[in-house]
Amino acid sequence: MSRLYFAYGLTVLALLAAGEYRGWSLASVNEVKNVPNSVRDNPGSYRSVYAGYHHYVGGK
Amino acid sequence: MKSPPTVAGSSVTYLGQHYKHFQTAAAKTTFVLGEFPWQVRVGETAEATDYVHPPMVISSETTEDKEVTWSIGEYTPGEDIWTAFGLEGEPPRATGIYANEPSPYKGRVLRLWGAWLLFTVALFVVAIGVGITLPHEVAMRGSYRFDPKGPGEASFVSPAFELKGHASGVAVATGSNVDNNWIYVNYALINSDTNDAYDFGREVSYYHGVDSDGSWSEGSTADEVVLPSVPPGHYYLRIEPEGNLMGPSVAYTVAVTRGVQNEMLYLVAFFALLVPVILVTIRSGSFEQRRWAESDHAPGSD
Prior knowledge:
The structure holds two protein chains of two kinds.
Chain A: H1 2-22, E1 30-32
Chain B: E1 6-8, E2 11-14, E3 17-28, E4 45-53, E5 56-63, E6 68-74, H1 78-84, H2 108-133, E7 137-146, E8 156-157, E9 161-163, E10 168-176, E11 181-191, E12 197-211, E13 214-219, E14 222-230, E15 233-243, E16 250-258, H3 263-292
Antiparallel strand pairs in B: 1-2, 2-3, 3-4, 4-5, 5-6, 7-16, 8-15, 9-15, 10-14, 10-16, 11-12, 11-15, 12-13
Helix pairs in contact in B: 2-3
């Protein structure tokens, strides 16, 4: 059991190192291909998939 | 046994080992078959007490005329007895946990917690080492203002910037002076070399006040997200703020940083290391609970 856990722990640390090197993240990001060049000159021509998201406007 | 054990309270000590009281019961001989080292008769009664130190058990039998007989035994798995008698087939499966049955977790729990401690220290060392070596290179920083009542298109693009090195995480930090207010920023990190984009949105909201429970606050004036595995190249950021249409104008800052530490990964690693140890500890506790459930000291019986 301890040997198994030792191997498991080393794997976790190795994955952590790989994750840090490659920049793994749990962030919710949408990858979009072939964004038109015109966005640079006309930012309004592009609409984010997150636009119009319902926002929290409360407080306690 | 060469000498009787030393009785101290509800436990006994024999050859330096401490045996816990397990059970005391009235035993009655109802049937006799086989060979015995004493003269046994049907109808005899005795008070039988077991003390355990798995895999060992010490038993005392006190007869009606106060004669005490001590004996010691060692747990033997059913498979061993089955094999010793040369029986065919498979032995019946054991049910429950016997009084002196050795725990498969004995010693393991402590060793696992020791290993967990070592790995946690290693995790901190890695975190400090990575924190020191990562470049934390700010590729773009800008200060902006969003007026919800302002006319025209709110979106704009940042100046172009370069992300160097290998594909790695990129942090996009948003700070704002929101006060009982919110701002939501739609971002698109666009690679001008490939026209591929990372599209995401971040909200910064901060509310506070005082009520009958005292002062309270929710949210924060700062936010940071790490985009995964962003390849090197030339980029610009499309920024589109949204806000409370009835609220005041809001100042906000945006910073793009290459080579940042992702704390969330360490948190995930910490729990990944902790969970198996907790599971084994729970299973070990459950094993002992099932053992003692059959004793005079069953949990919850006091």
